[in-house]
Amino acid sequence: YGATTKAKPPRADRGSGSIREVAPGRWKLAIDVGRDEAGRRRRVTRIVQGSKSSAARALASLIVEAQSGERVPAQHGSALTVADLVQWYVSFARDVRGLERTTVFGYQEVFEVWLKPRIGHVLAERLTPAQIDDAFGHMRAEGKSHSRMNNARAALSGAFKWGRRHDKVRANPMRGFELPKSSHVPRKTVAPEAEQLRFLLSEAQAFDPEFAAVLLLAATTGMRRGELSGLRRDQLRLARGELLVARSISEIKGVLEDKPTKNSQTRLIKLDQATIAFLRSHLAAMDERAEICGTTPLLLTLRAKTSP
């Protein structure tokens, strides 16, 4: 007679999960999230506290995340690290809240450089106010600006608020946190004198006439660099001596983005007669070049530059 073998139970489907009580009111959740790069089955576990029904709701939420294809963050032990929580929040802020790419990039950059090396590995549930103070104290000691530290606070505070709302963490250690006073000493910017400005404009017109128009507008209107880069012909109303500021160009890691101005508002700027005459001459030169190239100019200048 041949030996009989017991059939193996089928493997769990992606997103299937289980609940096990490991202590009174303390539950271990486990879900299957597919295979890793080496083909091994990958499971994610999480410890929650409360009633069995609240644990079941937490498991359902975790399963929905897995089945929707959302990346379940890597785990250290049984909970999210601070780095995992911030990464998940940044994705939410970009894709759901619709924050500007520049804002999201600012959050990511300051966290990666200044907070992650000091507290990124800490379990989010165990992060203490003392560890937060130490991380921001390090930023202050390194002379980081108030704006830089404020970006770090926004990233960390937003992550824990989001985590609380989605049952990722039970407490928010950022509550009551106050930024330390920045020791940053800003570099003083000295505007050029009238003679220096005339010299710069003369040199630019001789060696780089396209940039001369940008330099002149920067000097006479005070427009931001991104606004100068995004200026189009239909925003010029030279007959009325006006310029409409409506768009801005930003660059993040080599990727250009055409977006509204910093405060998302348009504004009219009055132009003096010398600037109007200069722009008319510049536009005529660009029209002549466009005719030779067989195209129609849309931007005020053909090259987007933001500094001399």
Summarize the SSE layout with pairings.
Blueprint: E1 17-23, E2 26-35, E3 41-49, H1 52-67, H2 82-97, H3 101-119, H4 129-141, H5 146-165, H6 194-207, H7 209-221, H8 225-229, E4 236-237, E5 242-245, E6 247-252, E7 255-260, E8 267-270, H9 273-293
Antiparallel strand pairs: 1-2, 2-3, 4-5, 5-8, 6-7
Helix pairs in contact: 2-3, 2-5, 3-4, 3-5, 6-7, 7-9
What does this structure look like?
With 308 residues, the protein is an alpha+beta fold. The protein has nine helices and eight strands. The protein has helices spanning 52-67, 82-97, 101-119, 129-141, 146-165, 194-207, 209-221, 225-229, 273-293; strands at 17-23, 26-35, 41-49, 236-237, 242-245, 247-252, 255-260, 267-270. Strand 1 and strand 2 form a beta hairpin. The model is unreliable at 5-15, 74-78 and 301-308 (pLDDT under 50).
Assembly form of the protein = single chain
Uncertain residue ranges: 5-15, 74-78, 301-308
Strand content: 15-25%
Overall pLDDT metric? 81
Distance, first to last CA: 91 Å
Number of strands: 8
Strand order of the largest sheet: 1-2-3
What is the number of helical segments per DSSP (H or I, 4+ residues)? 9
Structural class: alpha+beta
Radius of gyration of CA atoms, rounded to a whole number: 28 Å
What's the main sheet like?
3 strands, antiparallel
